[in-house]
Design a protein that fits this description.
Largest sheet: 6 strands, mixed
Number of domains: 1
Order of helices and strands: HEHEHEEEE
GO molecular function, one term: oxidoreductase activity
Number of strands: 6
Distance between the termini: 19 Å
Keywords: Oxidoreductase
InterPro entries: NTF2-like_dom_sf (IPR032710), Rng_hydr_dOase-bsu (IPR000391)
Helix content: 10-25%
Strand content: 35-45%
CATH architecture: Roll
CATH class: Alpha Beta
Protein name: Ring hydroxylating subunit beta family protein 4
Strand order of the largest sheet: 2-1-6-5-4-3
Family: Belongs to the bacterial ring-hydroxylating dioxygenase beta subunit family.
């Protein structure tokens, strides 16, 4: 893995970070709305054609191990995952709620890549039970603009737990 997931200070001016913040916050809101409304087949559209998505535990990330619950390289692989999740898996009815906070815009490169981090909390509600915390962690993102739209070039969703409440694996 080329990424380091340890704390790193911002290397972007406060002014530029503030200018980028509304666009990235809106991106997170739309991304979460698609997943929370169970429109998982739209999920790949948030990524570049060659985008990378990885969901892995904090322990594996800190050890530099690329092993993850979900690994998808390219929009086609993400589409396959989305279709499998939405059309073929059988599971108890549930609702999800993604909460994203503490957005930190870390860097904007000379080629226009925007690196950021944000905390996430994924709540899950089974129809016949209380809402519970399903996952908590941090997004480590690289955004780029494609035809004027913000897209993810990479999203590493690093979740804090080593044990998941169940084996269902949805995009985070």
């Amino acid at each position: 893995m080329k990424h380091t997931f340890a704390y790193r200070p911002q290397s972007i001016s406060i002014e530029r970070a503030l200018a980028l913040r509304p666009e990235i916050e809106n991106f997170h809101a739309e991304y979460c709305a698609v997943l929370d409304q169970n429109q998982v087949e739209l999920w790949p559209e948030f990524f570049t054609e060659d985008g990378l998505y990885r969901a892995t535990s904090r322990e594996n990330a800190e050890l530099g191990m690329p092993v993850g619950l979900i690994y998808a390289e390219g929009r086609d692989m993400m589409h396959d995952r989305a279709v499998a999740t939405s059309r073929t898996q059988m599971y108890a009815p549930r609702f999800t709620l993604h909460l994203v906070s503490n957005l930190r815009i870390l860097e904007e490169t000379a080629v226009g890549e925007i690196e950021s981090q944000a905390n996430f909390l994924l709540m899950q509600t089974l129809i016949e039970g209380p809402s519970t915390v399903h996952l908590a962690g941090t997004y480590h993102d690289t955004h780029v603009h494609v035809d004027g739209q913000l897209k993810l070039k990479e999203r590493h969703a690093i979740f804090d737990t080593e044990i998941l409440a169940n084996s269902l694996v949805y995009p985070i």
